[in-house]
Amino acid sequence: MINSFISLDDLEVIVLDKLKSLGITEKDYPLNPYKLIANEKIILQEVDIDNKDIRGMIVRGANAVGIMINGTRNQRSKNFIAMHELSHFWLHPSEERRVCLDNYIDSQRMYEWQANNAASIALMPTTLLTRLYCECAGNIYCLCDFFDVGIDAMTYRLKNIRRDCLSWNVHTNGYHINFNEFCEKTYNEKLLYNRRYY
Ligand SMILES: [Zn+2]
């Protein structure tokens, strides 16, 4: 259980340990959060909610836990929401009820930040994502197809892995990830990372 500030690196260790304890390996990707939720015996419901800001909800009862996902979202968005709610289940067991919105204020890296980043790590683990990013020559659409996630989730994840390889692109008015720098730096550090945790 986490109830205070946590770094992204520490969160990654917790999430990877959890997946490892469930026997998840690279062969299980793209990860199916719906299967993981079923394995936890959580009741899952998709409900069409007109308010698009509401992504999902988790409720803990005396005898059961329920997760609700906004059914109006597209499938890739629903995959992310499912993993987000499951992350609350794993990381925040003391909470009885939480409604998850698109926009939240979380400067302290608390529950919503943790669930978003845990979902992001679980669906797109650094080692596998880095390898595929470099093998796919940085083609973001190919990566989204492989991991079954949306463009926004993929972009956010890549930015988190390597902020120092980002540059502001004035033409597209958005961030650009320097491909060579990203692959070179991440691979070098990944060797150290693997030695640290496995
Ligand atoms: Zn949430």
If you had to describe this structure to a student in words, what would you say it looks like?
- The structure is a single chain.
- The protein is of the alpha+beta class.
- The protein folds into two domains: 123 residues, Orthogonal Bundle (Arc Repressor Mutant, subunit A); 74 residues.
- Helices cover 50% and strands 16% of the residues.
- The strands form two sheets. A four-stranded mixed beta sheet has the order 1-3-2-4, covered by helices on one side.
- The radius of gyration is 17 Å and the shape is globular.
- The model has no long low-confidence stretch (mean pLDDT 86).
- Zinc ion (ZN) binds next to helix 3, strand 4 and helix 4.
Structure keywords:
2 domains, two-stranded antiparallel sheet, 198 residues, binds zinc ion, 16% strand, single chain, alpha+beta, Arc Repressor Mutant, subunit A, four-stranded mixed beta sheet
Name the strands of the widest sheet in spatial order.
Answer: 1-3-2-4
**Helix proportion range:** 40-55%
By secondary-structure content and strand pairing, the structural class works out as alpha+beta
Q: What's the CATH class label of the largest domain?
A: Mainly Alpha
Largest sheet: 4 strands, mixed
Number of structurally distinct domains: 2
> Helix tally?
8
Report the radius of gyration as a whole number of Å.
Answer: 17 Å
Silhouette = globular
Question: What is the H-and-E element order?
Answer: HHEEEHEHHHHEEH
The total count of strands amounts to: 6
Bound molecules: zinc ion
Amino- and carboxy-terminal Cα gap: 22 Å
Say what the CATH topology of the largest domain is: Arc Repressor Mutant, subunit A
Share of β-strand residues: 15-25%
Pfam family, one: Peptidase_M78
InterPro entries: IrrE_HExxH, Rad_response_metalloprotease
Protein name: IrrE N-terminal-like domain-containing protein
